[in-house]
Amino acid sequence: MSAEQGGFAAWQAAQLARVERALNEWMPAQAPAGLGEVMRYAVQGGGKRLRPLLALAACEAVEGAPQAALRAACAVELIHAYSLVHDDMPCMDNDVLRRGKPTVHVQFGQAQALLAGDALQALAFEILTPEPSAAASADMPAAMQAALCRLLARAAGADGMAGGQAIDLASVGLPLTEPELRAMHRRKTGALLLASVRMGAACAAHPLPAAALQALDAYGQALGLAFQVVDDVLDVTADSALLGKTAGKDAAAGKPTYVSLLGLEAARQLAADLLAQAENALNALQASGLAHTQPLHALARQVVQRQR
Q1: What is the pLDDT at residue 307?
Q2: What are phi and psi of 98, to 5 degrees?
Q3: Alpha carbon of 122 to those of 20, 76, 100, 126: distances in Å?
Q4: How far apart are CA 7 and CA 298, in angstroms?
Q5: Which residues of the chain fall below pLDDT 50?
Q6: pLDDT on residue 26
Q7: What pTM did the predictor assign?
Q8: H helices of the chain, where?
Q9: What three-state secondary structure class fits 128?
Q10: pLDDT reported for residue 4
Q11: 3-state class of 214 per DSSP?
C-alpha cells in the first residue's frame, strides 16, 4: 500500500467511524410498535457509505463546517437507505437480499418496511434542521439548512431518484438508447451521488467561485454515472455472496443496462472514461484554488475499481 493509499485508508476509516457514531446517535432508540428496530435494521450493518463519504470529502475540499457536513452525510445516507427499503419491496424490484441479509420486507413484513422507509425519509430532514438551541446550529445557519434541504429534496424527488425509478419500472423489456439510459440513471442513481457532493460543498463558510462549483458538478455527474455502469458490470460478473444482493436480477427482469446495450468490454471502457472525466474535474477544482481533493480522487477510483 502506498503512502497515499495508506493516508486515504486512515481518512476513510475515521470518517466511517464518525458516520456510524452519528447514525447510531440520531436513529431513534425507541419508536412505536417496533418501528425503531426496523429503521435500524435498514440502516445499520452494511453498505459502502459512499454518499456520506462524498459529502465529507467535498466539505473538506471547500474547507467547510465539519459538523454541518456530518449532518448532511447522515441525511443523504438515510434517504439512500429508505430508497433501498422501498425499491426492494414486491411492488417494485421484489428482492430478497440486500447487504448480505434479508431485505426489510422479508424480515419484518411489507407494512413495517413501508413505514420504516417513510420514517427514514422524514428523519433525514429532521437531522438537517437541528433545534436552535443545539450546538450544531452554530455551524448551520438557517440559509445553509434551507440549501441542504432543497438539494436533498430535489435529488430524491420526481426529477431525481423517484423519477428515475419510475422510468426504470416503465422500461422493463423495452429497448432504450444510450441517451435514454443515461437520462434514467442521472435521476435514479446519479442524482443522490451528485447531491452528496453538492451538499458537502454547501457547508462552505463562504460562497464558492463559479469555476469550483462547475468542477464539483462535473465530478459528481461523472462519478454518478460511473457508479451505475460498474453496477451493471458487476450484475453480470459477480455472484450474490460477493455483491450482498441478488446477482443477475436486472437481466432476468428484462431491464436495460449498460452491459445489455453496449456489451461488457465497452461498458468497462465507459467506466474508465468516466473515471478520467471525474479526475479531470478535480484537477480543474485544484486550479480554482481548492487543493484538498485527495479523498475525492480516491473515492472516484474506489467506485470504478470496486468488486462489489
Answers
A1: 85
A2: -150, 130
A3: 19, 12, 26, 6
A4: 10
A5: 1-3
A6: 94
A7: 0.93
A8: 3-26, 35-43, 50-61, 66-87, 104-108, 110-127, 142-156, 161-170, 178-185, 191-201, 210-237, 240-243, 249-252, 258-262, 264-287, 294-305
A9: coil
A10: 64
A11: helix
